[in-house]
Amino acid sequence: MSSPIYQTYARYGIAPEKGEGAWLETTDGRRFLDFGAGIAVNALGHAHPHLVEALTNQAGKLWHTSNLYQVPGQVSLAQRLVDNTFADLAFFTNSGAEALECAIKTARRYHYVSGHPERFRLITFEGAFHGRTLATIAAGGKEQYLEGFGPKTEGFDQVPLGDLEAVKAAITPETAGILIEPVQGEGGVRTVEPAFLRQLRKLCDERGLLLIYDEVQCGVGRTGHLFAHDVVNAEPDIMAIAKGIGGGFPLGACLATTEAASGMTKGTHGTTYGGNPLAMAVGNAVLDVVLQEDFLPHVRAMGLKLRQTLAGIIDSHSDVLEELRGEGLMLGLKCKVPNTELAAACLEEGLLVVGAGENVVRLLPPLIITETEIAEAASRLDKACARLEAEHLEEQTS
Ligand SMILES: *Cc1c(COP(=O)(O)O)cnc(C)c1O
Question: Ligand 1 mean position to 301 CA, how many Å?
């Protein structure tokens, strides 16, 4: 069957048509429990009434004007992000990769205007994922994403995750900063030790480097805290966010301190769509909910519940699963069978999950998930594991 779409994705056969909360319904009428949440994007689930209202209200007023004019929604959303983070300033984008591009440019310009134009390189980490633009595939360093796309963009030096000596050894007079995900998502739900982030902060302070966090996946409540680094006592100078902040509307942001953003003066950067009124209405609506007093405690409680439930499933299916990773509602199951097989078996049982590096299956439910839905997901995962065990047993005996 030929399709008019680029064949860059190996897609599952299902076609979701509508959703409500943690549930998706496909065009053929099947219902799926969505523990992928559009890869950690649908933070408030599908068709959340407050987001639907915000978007449709705005849609009747004004969609787009460009950044040639004032956009009041940008000011309010930026102010709320600033009030709740280390940052003083925000730049809005349409995606995570664009937020990272802005972060990289911000770091380079900081040194440029500080009289060190030679400092343009960033140290990044093995297993990282920062997006699919030419600069962000270079930052991520994954060979599969770089192959065939011409010379790798200059300026990224990769070291093993958690290896402070390797970071120190990689610093040269050209180093501008360090870029890290506090919890690696695509890399396999690898939580970075808080002590390591504190060591990086100290190192950056000593060497005049900028610390950049990529919280595109782990931010906006995903780990049970507004940002994953909120509990590690090591603040960045610059941070990229996206995914959850738009709840499904394309929205990202680069946040920075006034000092770190000192090079981003008039005319140095721009975007046509970034921060448009529709995106700002939705971003503000997401924060209305996420900043409610009982929201993050709910995420933590559900994270704990899911973690306990999964521990039991690992125990009873030790031929399929070997390890639980992650924080809050950003959890990963390291598999003993190919993770693609487990994801396919889950789909058969009506549970959507997402693969990741290191043979991990990610569980990223909407943050509004309930205990009943967690129990339902667990029962479906249990059946998926049992199905795989039966299949593998059959292979062995035939
Ligand atoms: C998804 C992701 C990105 C890229 O975001 P896009 O919106 O796909 O460009 C960057 N960094 C991390 C950690 C991500 O998970």
Answer: 26
Ligand 1 touching residue 189 (CB < 6 A): no
Structure tokens at 61: 């007023």
Residues 6+ away with beta carbon under 8 Å from 346: 352, 353, 361, 380, 381, 384
pLDDT at 361 over 80: yes
140 CB under 6 A from ligand 1? Answer: no
Is there an atom of ligand 1 within 6 Å of 217 CB?
Answer: yes
Probe target for ligand 1 pocket from 124, 183, 217, with the most ligand atoms within 8 Å of CB? 217
Q: Which atom of ligand 1 is nearest to the CA of 181?
A: 13
- Residues β-bridged to residue 92: 253
CA 39 to ligand 1 center in whole angstroms: 9
Q: Indicate the average pLDDT of the chain.
A: 97
Residue 97, ligand 1, Cβ within 6 A: yes
User: b vs e for 263-302, b when ≥16 Cβ sit within 10 Å of the residue's Cβ?
Assistant: bbeeeebebebbbbbbbbbbbbbbbebbeeeebbebbbeb
Tell which one of 216, 241, 330 to mutate to probe ligand 1, the residue whose CB is within 8 A of the most ligand atoms: 216
Percent of the chain with pLDDT over 90: 97
Q: What is the mean pLDDT of residues 152-163?
A: 98
Q: What residue spans define the domains of the chain?
A: 16-34+294-397, 49-290
Q: What is the pLDDT of residue 1?
A: 62
CATH superfamily membership of 16-34+294-397: Aspartate Aminotransferase, domain 1 (3.90.1150.10)
- For residue range 365-389, list pLDDT tens digits in order: 999 999 999 999 999 999 999 999 9
CATH: 3.40.640.10, 3.40.630.30, 3.40.50.10610, 2.40.170.20. Which one for 49-290? Answer: 3.40.640.10
H or E segment to which residue 338 belongs: none
**Residue with CA at minimum distance from ligand 1 atom 11:** 130
